[in-house]
Amino acid sequence: MITELDSVLCGFRGISLCEMESAGLLDRVDAKYMINVDILPILLKKVFDDYRILEIDNKRIFQYSTLYYDTDNDLLYSSHHNGKLNYTKIRYRKYVDSDISFLEIKQKVKGIRTIKHRTRIKDIETTISDYAKEYIENNTPFQNIQLKPIIYTDFKRLTLVTHDMIERVTIDQDLVFRINGTSHKLDNIAIIEIKRDVKPKNSILAHNLNKIRAYPDGFSKYCVGRAILEKKLKSNNFKEIFLNINKISNGKYNYRNIS
After folding, report:
1. Angle between helices 239-249 and 221-229 (to 10 degrees)
2. Of 184 and 255, which is predicted with more confidence?
3. Looking at residue 227, which CATH number applies to its domain?
4. Does the first or last residue of the chain, that is N or C, have fewer Cβ atoms within 10 Å of its Cβ?
5. Is residue 85 part of a domain?
6. How many CB atoms are located within 10 Å of the residue 43 CB?
7. Beta strand 13-15 with 51-54: parallel, antiparallel or unpaired?
8. In a domain, 255, yes or no
9. Is residue 81 part of a domain?
């Protein structure tokens, strides 16, 4: 069955993974937005002419699976929750459709820039290998840090890029969090992340999001997933994000100019 979103995505000009490599933006400024999935087709129709869409083997939406690691005392989670300007995420990410996996390190620098390191590995590791440990020590301040697997996040993603390759956009939906047999799905939510080497104030997509009153919110899959599934975990600093999740998911967010 072809959905409205599928029909809209057909209107974009495709781009191959090889062509898009120049827009990797591993050192970037990014902004994240949450919107209700029902307005995603309407929003994307407005930017047909401004972006191309990643296409691999005639597919334009891809399945991802991610396993995040942390310490016994939740150092990485706490650094983000407590508002540290510099914090780190360590994860394994699998591109399910192509069966390709990476160990990835994301570092937020001075609360502004995101720097990403990644290395190809065979598959998601539930126990960190010697190679992965050395890679983490070479690319983070952490030496001899004891890490353990914490939470899986699964989602579907489409990726857009501007014609000049200076902006990359990922749009995630059907997001599911999993911890030890317990899971939670974010219903009706799409997560949009706009990535540029400077602040995305000149982004056409960001401009259209602002017009409908959708604003950046600092959504973190790792932190939100843990806070939802681990009720005893400190999460008060994410209160505003959870209020927005509930409003958007239940169709109560007051969008404007969406026609």
Report:
1. 90
2. 184
3. 2.40.320.10
4. N
5. yes
6. 22
7. parallel
8. no
9. yes
Spatial separation of the C-alpha atoms in residues 256 and 250, rounded to whole Å: 17
Q: Among the listed ranges 21-30, 94-103, 221-230, which one has the minimum average pLDDT value?
A: 21-30
Going by C-alpha positions, the residue among 170, 30, 40 that lies closest to residue 93 is: 170
Mean pLDDT, to the nearest integer, of 98-112? 93
Unique residue bearing structure tokens 């959870």: 242
The token pair that represents 148 in the structure block: 């353990």
Query: Whose structure tokens read 């937005």?
Result: 33
User: What confidence score (pLDDT) does residue 254 get?
Assistant: 79
b vs e for 154-177, b when ≥16 Cβ sit within 10 Å of the residue's Cβ?
bbbbbbbbbeebbbbbbbbbbbeb
Which residue is it, tokens 């930017």?
A: 47
Does residue 211 form part of some domain? yes
**What confidence score (pLDDT) does residue 258 get?**
73
pLDDT at 75: 97
> Residue 75 class from Cβ within 10 Å (0-12 exposed, 13-18 middle, 19+ buried)?
middle
Mean pLDDT of 172-191: 96
- Domain membership of residue 162 as a residue range: 4-249
Q: Give how many domains the chain has, as a whole number.
A: 1
DSSP for the chain reads ---HHHHHHTTSEEE-HHHHGGG--SEEEEEEEEEEGGGHHHHHHTTTTTEEEE-BTTB-SEEEEEEEEE-TT-HHHHHHHTT-SSEEEEEEEEETTTTEEEEEEEEEETTTEEEEEEEEESS--SS--HHHHHHHHHHSS-SS---EEEEEEEEEEEEEEETTSSEEEEEEEEEEEEETTEEEE-TTEEEEEEEESS-GGG-HHHHHHHHTT-------HHHHHHHHH-TTS--GGGHHHHHHHHHHHTT-----S--
